[in-house]
Specification:
This protein is mainly alpha-helical and about 150 residues long. The protein has two domains: about 90 residues, Uncharacterised protein YqeY/AIM41, N-terminal domain (Hypothetical Protein Yqey, Chain: A, domain1, Orthogonal Bundle); about 50 residues, Arc Repressor Mutant, subunit A (Orthogonal Bundle), CATH 1.10.10.410. About 75% of the residues lie in helices and about 0% in strands.
Length: about 150
């Protein structure tokens, strides 16, 4: 079952369960996906964005909420931080399991070997390969410096 269908099914179930907070978050996810569909509207009758793009949207939404949690906690708004954490939990239900540091390091090493990267100029190829294989499974903001260190 594709990700879009899973989200739609979860939205319908949240409506039936009258889970207001969960329903609100799922509607935000659906709206973000539809916005992306409109942004990349295809003339060839394509149904819209696929799972990799949906994973990227979900990852971005989770990251935004993590930043909001930090800001709310610094501002003493624990109630708003808790609400953001609840939204993160709903979003993470649809994201694949995050790779551990050891798994991410192995993935970086494997990607470097597969691409045949020898210098920092090959960093884009390595990151591109990683994004193709591990979208939604690793934080590419943290992986970038690891790739850079290995290629330096």
């Amino acid at each position: 079952m594709d990700l879009r269908t899973r989200i739609t099914d979860a939205l319908k179930q949240a409506m039936k369960d009258k889970a207001a907070q969960r329903l609100s978050t799922l509607r935000l996810i659906n709206a973000a996906i539809k916005d992306k569909d409109i942004a990349v509207r295809m003339d060839d009758g394509d149904t819209g964005v696929g799972d990799p793009e949906v994973l990227a949207i979900l990852g971005k939404m989770a990251k935004q909420r993590m930043e909001s949690v930090r800001a709310y906690e610094e501002g003493g708004r624990i109630d708003l931080a808790d609400r953001e954490r609840e939204e993160i939990q709903v979003i993470e239900e649809f994201l694949p399991r995050q790779l551990s540091d050891a798994e991410a390091a192995k993935a970086v090493d494997d990607a470097i070997a597969e691409v045949g990267a020898t210098s920092i100029r090959d960093m884009g190829k390595v990151i591109g390969l990683l994004k193709g294989k591990y979208t939604g499974q690793m934080d590419f903001g943290a992986v970038g410096p690891k790739v850079k260190d290995r290629l330096s």
